[in-house]
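anyone seen this seq b4? input:
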Amino acid sequence: MQKKYFVFLLLPLFFLGCKNEEPQVKAVNVYIETVSINGNPVSTNGIVYNLPVDSVVFSIAFSEAVDKSKINPQHFYVNNGIDTSFIVMDDTASHKLTFKIKKRLEYYTQYSLYISEGENLGVNLIDSYQFSFITQLDSTPKFPEISDDSLLTLVQKQTFRYFWDYGHPVSGLARERSGSGETVTIGGSGFGVLATLVAIERSFITRQQGFERLSTIVNFLNTKADRFHGVFPHWMNGTSGKVQPFSEKDNGADLVETAFMMEGLLTVQQYFKNGNREEKNMCDTIQKMWEDVEWNWFQQNGQQKLYWHWSPNYGWAMNMPVTGWNEALIVYILAAASPTYSIEKSVYDNGWARNGAIRNGKTFYDILLPLGEDRGGPLFFTHYSFLGLDPRNLSDTYANYWMQNTAHTKINHRYCIANPKKNFGYSADCWGLTASDFPGGYTASSPNNDNGTIAPTAALSSFPYTPEESMRALHFFYYVLGDKIWGEYGFMDAFNLNKQWFSNSYLAIDEGPIIVMIENYRSGLLWNLFMQNENVRQGLGKLRFSF
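predicted toks r here
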């Protein structure tokens, strides 16, 4: 009896021990094969743009079957600090998980799906994953809707404040950008003096107010500003007039920036030439500075081309010829137009036109491009020289310049519609690639250098060439994005919807063309004035332009 009792006691312990030692079933290792968000495929750490706020659906395909009833919310969740719980949807495929965000999301907000490695869904996920998306923009108008004509006036008036309110208090010149303090820019100031004429004509300021500011600028340039063979530097100190180096060896003359200033000053001269004695005196000073520019000296020892820079310390070390096609056509036209230091036509043909190599002649988006790089380059090529120079009837041996600028702009527009890089926002309403700030600094954006950054100046300064397309862009910038990019001096410099980045900067060279080219579209004011200058007309004739 004692022996049997001992066996009876051991039997439960035996079976209990066997039960504890049973091997655990190990979860199957799996990985994610594909993920799509609203049908858009996305890779790990990738992002999908422009999703509706009220319907976001994820579809995830795994390498093996998963148990959809075993989602661990601590390892599988959408995170953004609000309720982003989701509903798992019926799906017959055992290796596929489809789910929908429950609640309406916020506009233009980034959300991320986090899936942690480890056991989840009844399997062992061998890697962690993250997939992000940004919801669509809120398209409701951010400001009361007004007529298109009133909107154009508002944009010109608000943008002009950059030059008027933020102009340097001593010299009156335009600061290079917001926050640049003493640094003023010669080219941007040239755009600003043109904008001042628009402000007078549009009654933003009186004629006397405009004259006083322009007279301050002209007198400063004539008496205090550094000049080298009659040519201004790119940047200077707005109080002392001393050159501020643009780069180490660029601490002297900048012929291109000076051409932009002279384009503005010659237009101012035409506007005031029949005015009172003070106004005529200002015009005489402009004539003196115009005649002081030694254009042909910048042929660098008689070469058949013009050079951009010269430094009193480094001489011609920058060694950058001004060759086309780019923003600098006005340099050669003014150089030919000079009554004192003129260039010959051969310098234009060999230097600017590169003996015909300036031509393109290819078709992009079914549009023939006469000149320049493929797909046209940044849009400021069609703006800076043509703030005063009228392209409407302008032709020479190489191109019809209205056709050139219109083609260039339309190619830029159609590239943004085609959107080969799938940038968020690019469309018939949101377009325009040119030089501007971007999330990494400053660059000349174009179809050949596209990082997703749109600059309002690109489309808005193109009003003469693409009025309907530019108006659509203006509506988008003002009504849709106005709460993000409209400020004290009009539209801020640029934005990148991919990166949810909106610049807080204003740049003189981007602000000025908006005012001027909108006015040329509306009235032709600056074109008509500049083209009346007899020296300019003679220079165009010398280069055998028809105009």
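Residues 1-19 have pLDDT under 50 and may be disordered. The radius of gyration is 32 Å. kinda curious what u guys think
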